[in-house]
Amino acid sequence: MTTGVLVAVTACGGSGTGTTTKDGFAQAPQKDGAFTVWVDSTRLAAAKLYQKQHPKVQMKIVTYDGNANGSNYLQTKVQLFNRTGKGWPDVVFSSQNNEVTWAVDAKFVAPLNKGLVPQSTLSGFARGANDVCTVDGTLYCLRNDLSQAVLWYNAPLMKKWGYQVPTTWEEYQKLGEKVAAEHPGYLVGDAGDSYTPEVYLWASKCGANDITGPKAVSVNTTSANCTKMAQLMDVLIKKKSMSISGVFSTDFGKNKADKVLMMPGPAWYGGALFKGTFKTPAKQIAAAPMPQWSGETSPSTGNVGGGTWLLSQHSEHVKAATDFLTWVTTDNAYQGEVAPGFPACASAAEAWLKQQNASGYYAGDLNVLKDASTQVWPKWGSGQFSQEAIWAATVKPGMTQGKTIVSLLPAWQDSIVKYAQSNGYKVSQ
């Protein structure tokens, strides 16, 4: 973790002489001075922008890994702070959506819907966006952005080759087989990332990760919804129109980035992957709704990431910290104009979409992201264990050895069960 930089000039917050129960929790004595915010490298721009727009507010900005890939850095540090009785940051960004599974019991996070954040503000978030932050009706964090999956595609190539954007998974598979035959080397998807199940299996309503209670999970990786998606992926992997490299791998960047015809993936693929990592030229990439299985009457998609903001109940600068927390999740200055992903706050999302559509980069508007934001299947939960870590340890090694995903589903099931039980979950299968 890098050393924080103290910025600004005058004091904010109040002062107090003793612990006071207010806003649903026992607050530490409030003090003048700087509040501390922990952010990852991507959200550093948000903290700096807030400081620029609020020059009289004192902040100490510290960068850390953001708990990327379930590193558990934040949990480990909080355990240390709890033992020593000092050191807690006032506000933290986490790239994970499951922090409340431990942070509530650790008495780290403060409730936000007991007076700190107005209901009028909370009601402005997209439906279901803050479900991952809620425990027994109490809200303990705010969602930064939504990472709903859609179907990204190269619009000029699709038109040139006379292909129609698939609306069903059956059409998607047929087109993938056709691409393999007619344009070998081109891709309709990728199955090489640790979050692959969150793109494909989640969208297929595969019941691998249904969190049914605070410490309860239902796991079934061999249901029809899981198996048929695994079979589809196996066919396209064998045909070589679906990669198993991983989109951020060196191999993919060198040899496949310019061979993407279609790519199911999260909202942030547009800017972060195609425009950023791949350097795909303007007016090529467009977005369509995620395909659905034929006969499906309730459209569904998956979600990859998003991230959350948490406020420490140990904060000695509650007002200043809450002001920042509210601004960073709802204000258009960051979320609508600067943020790389689709904002969880609905009004900011509207501003963000308007800006993306006017940017001149995309081959069509991105309005399908708005519809997809309400179609994330709710029965894939955010448990304390990392599904990405499980997939990376269990399924991906088998895939690289040439095994089919279908054949690896039982091992995936067994691994999820073991991870869940080791974290104290009661598992039903």
What does this structure look like?
It contains 17 helices and 20 strands. It has helices at about 45-55, 75-85, 100-105, 120, 155-160, 170-180, 195-200, 225-240, 250-255, 270-275, 320-330, 330-335, 345-360, 370, 385-395, 395-400, 405-420; strands spanning about 5, 20, 25, 35-40, 60-65, 90-95, 135, 140, 140-145, 145, 150-155, 190, 210-215, 215-220, 240-245, 260-265, 285-290, 310, 340-345, 425-429. The model is unreliable at about 1-15 (pLDDT under 50). The longest helix is centred in the C-terminal third of the chain and has 18 residues, at about 405-420. The chain is about 35% helix and about 15% strand. The chain has about 425 residues and is α+β, with helices and mostly antiparallel strands. It has a six-stranded mixed sheet, covered by helices on one side. A three-stranded antiparallel sheet has the order 16-11-17.
Entry keywords:
429 residues; alpha+beta
Low-confidence stretches: 1-16
Rounded mean pLDDT score: 93
The Cα radius of gyration reads 22 Å
**Main sheet record:** 6 strands, mixed
SS elements, strand count:
20
* Strand ordering within the main sheet: 1-5-4-6-18-9
Beta-strand percent range? 15-25%
Coarse morphology: globular
TL;DR of this structure?
With 429 residues, the chain is α+β, with helices and mostly antiparallel strands. It has helices at 44-53, 73-84, 100-103, 119-122, 155-160, 169-182, 196-199, 224-239, 250-255, 269-277, 318-330, 332-336, 346-358, 368-372, 387-394, 396-400, 405-422, and strands at 5-7, 20-22, 25-27, 35-39, 59-63, 91-94, 134-135, 138-139, 142-143, 145-146, 149-154, 189-190, 210-213, 216-218, 242-243, 262-266, 285-288, 308-311, 342-343, 426-428.
